[in-house]
């Protein structure tokens, strides 16, 4: 005997499923929400206990925003989390990410650096390596498509302009926005960022492709060359 109650033995007011049905999902705690997704616990541990272990594994601790940063290996290291539960959590995070991206896409506007940053932030904020993306727009300022053209430290000596502009030309874009991420919290552009941007603007002018902005994506924030008067 462990002396602990199981989920079935808890009062209805404390059972995640019943609480969700009777009051609504918004009344569930983070651990209870995750427990509903996990469905079952293990011997000696309720689903809410396992959910709390998952949350405590997140850095910063208990911040659901960073749940998708837990790798499958990290999830599997938690007692009570097997392959199925690890995949359930990973799929949940992917669904949330796709919903956010879909909503942001509806609002994307060439005249609003924030709307562009909001669209790419879910994907780029927490990358551990720099990536350079070119977002392409038509003559009516409508978003066409985007492509990752480089991975690694972004500077004018390493990034090939050909890779940037060939993607835009293939899609018949006339305006582009460059985006790259800064792993960590430093948002200010480096000297290399400034040199790279100036070089791309000049090449774009020669090709008839206007570089409208260069946006640096950080941890939940962004830096727009256009907004700062650098373009």
Predict the CATH topology of the largest domain. Answer: Cytidine Deaminase, domain 2
Q: Give the name of the CATH superfamily of the largest domain.
A: Cytidine Deaminase, domain 2
Mean pLDDT: 85
Radius of gyration: 23 Å
**Could you name the CATH class of the largest domain?**
Alpha Beta
Percent of residues in helices comes to 40-55%
The ordered string of helix (H) and strand (E) elements is: HHHHHHEEHEHEE
Number of domains: 2
The portion of residues forming beta strands comes to 5-15%
What is the first-to-last residue Cα distance? 70 Å
CATH architecture of the largest domain: 3-Layer(aba) Sandwich
Largest sheet: 5 strands, mixed
Domain MPN: 109-231
Family: Belongs to the UPF0758 family.
GO molecular function, one term: metallopeptidase activity
Keywords: Hydrolase, Metal-binding, Metalloprotease, Protease, Zinc
Descriptive account of the structure:
One of its GO terms (biological process) is proteolysis. Residues 109-231 form the MPN domain. A five-stranded mixed beta sheet has the order 2-1-3-4-5, with helices on both faces. The mean pLDDT is 85. It has two domains: 7-101; 108-224, Cytidine Deaminase, domain 2. It is built from eight helices and five strands. With 231 residues, it is of the alpha+beta class. α2 (30-38) crosses α3.
């Amino acid at each position: 005997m462990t002396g602990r109650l199981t989920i079935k033995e808890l009062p209805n007011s404390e059972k995640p499923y019943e609480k969700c049905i009777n009051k609504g999902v918004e009344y569930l705690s983070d651990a209870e929400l995750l427990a509903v997704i996990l469905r079952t616990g293990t011997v000696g541990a309720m689903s809410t206990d396992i959910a709390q272990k998952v949350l405590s594994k997140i850095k910063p601790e208990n911040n659901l925003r960073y749940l998708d940063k837990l790798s499958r290996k990290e999830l599997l290291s938690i007692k009570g989390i097997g392959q199925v539960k690890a995949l359930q959590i990973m799929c949940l995070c992917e669904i949330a990410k796709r919903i956010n991206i879909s909503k942001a896409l509806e609002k994307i506007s060439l005249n609003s650096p924030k709307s562009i940053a909001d669209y790419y932030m879910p994907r780029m904020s927490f990358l551990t390596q720099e990536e350079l993306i070119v977002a392409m727009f038509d003559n009516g300022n409508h978003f066409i498509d985007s492509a990752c053209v480089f991975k690694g430290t972004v500077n004018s000596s390493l990034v090939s302009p050909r890779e940037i502009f060939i993607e835009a030309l293939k899609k018949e874009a006339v305006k582009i926005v460059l985006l790259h991420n800064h792993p960590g919290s430093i948002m200010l552009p480096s000297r290399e960022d400034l040199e790279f941007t100036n070089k791309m603007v000049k090449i774009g002018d020669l090709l008839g492709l206007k570089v409208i902005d260069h946006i640096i994506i950080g941890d939940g924030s962004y830096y727009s060359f256009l907004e700062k008067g650098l373009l």
